[in-house]
Amino acid sequence: MLKDITLGQYFPGNSVIHRMDSRFKIVLDILYVVILFVADNYVSLAIAGIFIFMAYAVSEIKPVMMLKSLKPLMPLILFTAILNLFFVKGEGEPLVDWWIFHIYMEGISTAVFMIVRIVCLIIGMSLLTYTTSPIVLTDAIERLLSPLKKIRLPVHELAMMMTIALRFIPTLIEETDKIMSAQKARGADLDTGGLMKRAKALIPILIPLFVSAFKRANELAMAMECRCYKGGEGRTKLRQLKAQPFDYMIGLLMLTVLGFVIIDNVVF
Amino acid sequence: MNAVETRNLTYKYSIGTPFETTAVDDVSIVIEQGEFVGVIGHTGSGKSTFIQHLNGLLKQSSGEVLINERNIRDKNVNIKDIRFEAGLVFQYSEYQLFEETVYKDIAYGPKNMGLSEEEIDKRVRNAAIQMGLDHELLERSPFDLSGGQKRRVALAGVIAMEPKILILDEPAAGLDPSGRDKVLEEISGYHKNSGTTILLVSHSMEDIVKYANKVLVMNRGRLFCYESTDKVFSMSEELQEIGLDIPQITKLSHLLAEKGIDIGSDVYTVERAKERLLRKLKGNTNA
């Protein structure tokens, strides 16, 4: 029941994309978003599109997963498309002119352009989470944000909190399951009644859950202290992030694409 | 009367995925009213999954479960009533405590049954006495109690529903020896006083031998055997083959037999071993 919830959307694998340095993956993903927004004609957008499809092809992630990542954002995509379709005014005669609806050729063109752009954006971001485990991702974020330590932002502590939270989500789910079963065995009724009754029925589940979560947090803190944990200062990493030549190659490729897109914009 | 009956009970996880596993495989069993049944099996043998079917917490993939001769999946059977008839106490049951006072926590189950205030009060006090909880404890917060006391409060919470069948999953796990004995003694006393059918899941063969009169052995999701305690432990070789322990005193008697001091292969309790050894020693001096 609760166990069926999947967290994050990481698919373990051993493709070149999986093996890439996660810091590079994050930076390059941001760069990709920049490319998508700089591109303002079909040629550059097509290049960006082809790029991400090729990335999926080498990542060994099933193409179905692209659709899956788009599903929750479908309403947003449609909303943007419809807005552009009806409200972009063009020169010349409108194609459809009925009541308050005026559709111009430019409107259709912009709508399609926006759809492609948003779709590329979403599947591009998804590729990052599909190929990088949450823990590695946290690690990379910590490394990327580490310059902010200079302005006293507790980067390591934040990353540690994220790691611990991620680690304990499955544990807490399992525990909720157990407590629910135990209370059901005592006749708890969680599925019927009005809103108030249902909210009240949750008390016997939430209280034990909180009690054990606090207890667990306490024990974890104690265990960490026993192993001399005292923050990020001077702490080394088990997983050393190391950039490979491949990472630089992809980085160079993306910069080239960005350069091309900018030139393309200027020329056309 | 048959308290518990299962017919070809089968439960599978993650059906339709590569992870499909059969946790309970074609188990058919009849447990009579008033038995004290020990449930044993290696970790992952499906005992916990099996017992969660008896009050309908898990839904079987196929087969039938009958509690007090009523099919629990029948349309006119309310599953909540079944849960009051077959009380289930989980492992580490103290985690289910949530109320401000011990009294209120024990009263949670009876309250869900929709009983009158007086009846609830009677049952709570009765259950507390059965589980050896002092009167003054009832007004304390359950979170201030010791581990063993918490465990007994949780047990009292289920006993207060006065189920005809009481299913206990490792009720003594993680307690110190005295807490352990106390909990099991209370359960055994409750069995004698009320005639409730009891299913006790345990890893400790000593406990099983001491309290159960019948033993249900599970192995890899299947029913290995359901026999009287004596008979089950006389099959010590088969038990060890499926990764189960036998009582330490039985092991000792086997070792003694190897050294030429045969006190019989049916020694499961320290008392019996003592008796046999004394008889043997006296026999020797007489001869």
Q: What descriptors fit this protein?
A:
heterodimer; A: 268 residues; mainly alpha; 2 domains; 69% helix; B: 287 residues; alpha/beta; Rossmann fold; six-stranded mixed sheet; four-stranded antiparallel sheet; 40% helix; globular
Question: What can you see in these coordinates?
Answer:
With 268 residues, chain A is mostly helical. Chain A is built from eleven helices and two strands, in the order H-H-H-H-H-E-E-H-H-H-H-H-H. Chain A has two domains: 158 residues, no CATH class; 73 residues, no CATH class. In chain A, a hairpin with a 2-residue loop joins strand 1 and strand 2. The longest helix of chain A is centred in the middle third of the chain and has 31 residues. Chain A is flat and about 70 Å long. Chain A starts with 15 loop residues before the first helix and ends with a helix. Chain B is built from eleven helices and ten strands. In chain B, a hairpin with a 2-residue loop joins strand 4 and strand 5. In chain B, helix 4 crosses helix 5. The longest helix of chain B has 18 residues. The model of chain B has no long low-confidence stretch (mean pLDDT 89). The chains are: A mainly alpha (268), B alpha/beta (287). At the A-B interface, helix 8 and helix 10 of A face helix 2, strand 6 and helix 3 of B.
Helix count of chain A equals: 11
Total of domains of chain B: 2
Structural shape of chain A: flat
The radius of gyration over CA of chain B amounts to: 21 Å
Strand content of chain B: 15-25%
**Main beta-sheet strand count, sense and barrel state of chain A:** 2 strands, antiparallel
Cα Rg of chain A: 25 Å
How many extended strands of chain B? 10
Q: How many domains make up the 3D coordinates of chain A?
A: 2
| Secondary structure: helix percent of chain B | 40-55%
> Quick one: which chains have the greatest interface?
A-B, 18 and 23 residues
Query: Average pLDDT of chain A, to the nearest integer?
Result: 86
Q: Report low-confidence residues of chain A grouped into runs of 5 or more.
A: 3-7
Order of helices and strands of chain A: HHHHHEEHHHHHH
| Broad CATH class of the largest domain in chain B | Alpha Beta
> Strand fraction band of chain A?
under 5%
What oligomeric state best describes the polypeptide chains here? heterodimer
